[in-house]
């Protein structure tokens, strides 16, 4: 672009009396020169535009459009279901996030949010997941918030996942219009159960794979369904295996519930179960004569 403007400046500088002679002994007026410059400028602008803007995607068939609409409505149905416990958590999270004008670092903000949720009466903690490299799935780690709620209907506890960076995990650099519309409908803060999250991840990973292939890109390992599910659902799978194998050595830690777990193990009133002290058995004391007889061996000929 600099060379083009320099060339144009030189041509305008050497113009004399509104005329300039080219190498072919052709006389060109200043008007013709400006027209030539404007045409070259338009071509240059078009070249830059073609370089920046991606090629237009092929027209979508009616079958493909129906498939896109089915995924869109399926996602809306999954995200539209919300229990009373989830609604309470969403209300509390939004309240605290509005009060925090400058979140700062994400990790520090999550710790602050966990403390605020605990003040509201929620059993919240920060969960850190990590997994090793496997076939088709690179190693990675992730961090989110976990809340254990109590269901009054069946009297069971339920694990809710709270992620304040949920939407950004599914963004693509060159998405198709449909996938962009699909991700824009995602909530920036996800609050839901493992089942709800599992269905959402499966649908979005399928849509992202289709979007990447439509623009001519391959699906990277960190966009596969296995990798994406490892971010949130790895802790649940490992906890189930640990309960079956009685093995507590895993790479998933939920920080913030140590006090609650200690109280739960100690009893409902915070007192530990009493057990009598261990009594060591007294050593038998024998006289010198009996000890000598005990050390003797009897040989029968």
UniProtKB/TrEMBL annotation:
Top-rank taxon: Eukaryota
Low complexity: bias regions: 238-253
Signal sequence, renumbered to the chain: none
InterPro entries in alphabetical order: PDDEXK-like
Compositional bias ranges of the Polar residues kind: 254-269
Region (Disordered): 237-277
Pfam (any one): PDDEXK_6
Name of the protein: DUF506 family protein
